[in-house]
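User: Hi! I have a protein structure encoded as tokens and I'd like to know what sequence might fold into it. I'm fairly new to this, so please keep things simple.
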């Protein structure tokens, strides 16, 4: 089963409009042919610019880093899915560990965001992954599969087909520590089996599961060559055009 390969760059709260424009131009200059889909997820203010600069680039998509779970209304400072869709956003990252940690997002809330994103025709990139203490306690499989079930398994099969999953061990995000290929493969396989249990073999085989956590040009190839790893969600290295392009070319 041929799955979509995806590399998504999560810029987090970095880059101004001119800086972001320059970075996207550099990423485009470093682009080389391939069948990977490249998602650029800048801060919300930069989404429209990102869409404009990549509009005629077949491999490129634009992603938001978050959205609110309600449709619209009196939620000062929040970002509606319908507004994201209206500027051409393709993907929305939902459930990132920084949102869980600093903004107290629960799987129940994340499940509502997933539904909202899908209702506006965008594709969620759903993040899950264990904390260091959970890995040390040996509960990492249980934690990640539980997150998957609670945030996604309310979806029917047609909606689930639009989901990409990102396994991001929290202890590897921004720390320079990376899951070993063995750790990544066994978790991705476990997540895929869990999806199979709910949605069947065909949908499980066609779900892209990305790895995230200190992925860089030196380790991307060993991760992306694993049977159940279909690309990456990249934080720090997505802010350097050459590194990001090298990661995108690591299949
Ligand atoms: C992330 O924040 O999703 C991430 C993977 O960050 P980094 O690559 O910097 O570890």
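Assistant: Happy to help. Inverse folding works backwards from shape to sequence: for each of the 251 positions I chose a residue that suits the local structure. Here it is:
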């Amino acid at each position: 089963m041929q799955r979509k390969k995806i590399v998504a760059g999560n810029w987090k709260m970095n880059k101004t409009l001119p800086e972001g424009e320059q970075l996207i131009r550099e990423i485009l200059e470093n682009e080389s042919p391939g069948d990977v889909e490249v998602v650029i997820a800048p801060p919300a203010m930069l989404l429209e610019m990102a869409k404009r600069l990549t509009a005629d680039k077949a491999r490129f998509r634009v992603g938001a880093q978050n959205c609110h779970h309600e449709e619209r209304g009196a939620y000062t400072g929040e970002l509606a899915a319908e507004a994201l869709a209206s500027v051409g956003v393709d993907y929305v990252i939902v459930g990132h560990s920084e949102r869980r940690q600093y903004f107290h997002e629960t799987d129940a809330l994340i499940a509502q965001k997933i539904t909202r994103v899908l209702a506006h025709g965008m594709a969620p990139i759903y993040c899950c992954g264990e904390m260091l203490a959970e890995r040390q306690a040996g509960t990492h499989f249980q934690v990640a599969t539980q997150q998957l079930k609670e945030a996604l398994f309310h979806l029917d099969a047609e909606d689930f087909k639009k989901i990409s999953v990102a396994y991001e061990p929290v202890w590897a995000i921004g720390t320079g520590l990376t899951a070993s290929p063995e750790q990544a493969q066994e978790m991705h396989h476990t997540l895929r089996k869990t999806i199979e249990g709910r949605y069947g073999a065909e949908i499980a085989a066609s779900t892209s599961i990305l790895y995230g956590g200190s992925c860089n040009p030196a380790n991307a190839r060993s991760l992306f060559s694993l049977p159940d790893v279909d690309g990456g969600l990249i934080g720090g290295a997505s802010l350097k055009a050459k590194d990001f392009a090298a990661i995108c070319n690591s299949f």
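A useful reference point when you look it over: Residues 10, 168, 173-174, 212-215, 233-237 surround phosphoenolpyruvate (CB under 6 Å). Feel free to ask if any position seems puzzling.
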